[in-house]
Amino acid sequence: MIDFKQASKLYSNRTQPAVSNISLQVDRGEFVFFVGPSGAGKSTLIKLIFREQALTSGEIKIEGRDLSILKESELLSHRRKIGMVFQDYRLLKQKTVYENVAFALEVIGRSPEEIRSKVPAVLAEVGLAGKEKAFPTELSGGEQQRVGIARAIVKDPLIILADEPTGNLDRDNAWQIMELFEAINRRGTTVIIATHALDMVEHMKKRVVALENGLIIRDERQGSYSYEH
Ligand code: ADP
Ligand code: ADP
């Protein structure tokens, strides 16, 4: 479903590519961790899949579509298929929990009826029933990230892309968020998570794609974070 072929990205003000010669296939329904030190290229891969950044050379196809030749309208429909989750949540502070999730559907033109039925269902699924009227600043970090995840899944994406989603959370909350991603994945959604969270990656026994200096140095089906363990 996601197919990188010898893909490289050189940011315009740089001499070294952020990722080089990446060949990587991710099938529908997979759960994949991108791991590696800071600066390894994890975020860049995520941005390339979302087509927030464009490749310098090589190719990325999503469901057979070449991302480098999308027209504006195709770009929007591509992004609709992807739910993004961020380390810093990126919620709208002036909107309530309900409104934050509803807004994700409003901007893609979904009907008020659909919004009224989906938003409460998704909030219940992430464990936020009863918090609809709260504002982000009234929530804990773990709860804010649950809103972030609700907003990502409410549009029934094919793929969830999460960049350090537990980076600002304590251990317990981080685990709960990982369990939520696992539940989402069990429903068939492809989940890709860039993370430093060694102990979680070890424990989850999912596919691990390890990056260093922009290169894939390891790709294991039931991987761990590093060889040392
Ligand atoms: P990671 O997510 O693993 O920390 P990144 O993909 O953010 O790695 O970064 C990979 C390399 O690309 C780093 O050297 C980083 O400094 C560089 N980089 C990332 N984003 C940009 C950008 N917008 N402009 C220039 N260089 C960037
Ligand atoms: P429906 O058939 O009405 O979509 P579902 O039981 O499939 O009902 O979904 C119930 C809710 O869960 C819906 O609001 C939907 O947006 C959300 N949902 C659908 N797919 C997923 C998924 N893979 N992970 C998490 N939530 C999902």
Please give a structural write-up.
One of its GO terms (molecular function) is ATP binding. It is found in: Cell membrane. Residues 2-229 form the ABC transporter domain. It is a peripheral membrane protein. This protein is an alpha/beta fold. It has a single domain (2-220), classed as Rossmann fold (3-Layer(aba) Sandwich), CATH 3.40.50.300. It is 34% helix and 24% strand. The strands form two sheets. Strands 6-7-8-3-9-10 form a six-stranded mixed beta sheet, with helices on both faces. Helix 6 (171-186) links the parallel strand 7 (159-163) and strand 8. Helix 3 (97-106) packs parallel to helix 5, helix 4 packs across helix 5 (141-153) and helix 5 (141-153) packs parallel to helix 6 (171-186). The model has no long low-confidence stretch (mean pLDDT 95). It binds adenosine-5'-diphosphate (2 copies). One adenosine-5'-diphosphate (ADP) is lined by residues 11, 13-14, 18, 36, 38-44, 194. One adenosine-5'-diphosphate binds at residues 11, 13-14, 18, 36, 38-44, 194.
Write the layout of secondary structure elements.
Layout: E1 2-9, E2 19-26, E3 31-35, H1 42-50, E4 57-62, E5 65-66, H2 72-80, E6 82-86, H3 97-106, H4 112-125, H5 141-153, E7 159-163, H6 171-186, E8 190-194, H7 198-204, E9 207-212, E10 215-220
Parallel strand pairs: 3-8, 3-9, 6-7, 7-8
Antiparallel strand pairs: 1-2, 1-4, 4-5, 9-10
Helix pairs in contact: 3-4, 3-5, 4-5, 5-6
The structure holds adenosine-5'-diphosphate (2 copies).
Residues 11, 13-14, 18, 36, 38-44, 194 line the site of one adenosine-5'-diphosphate.
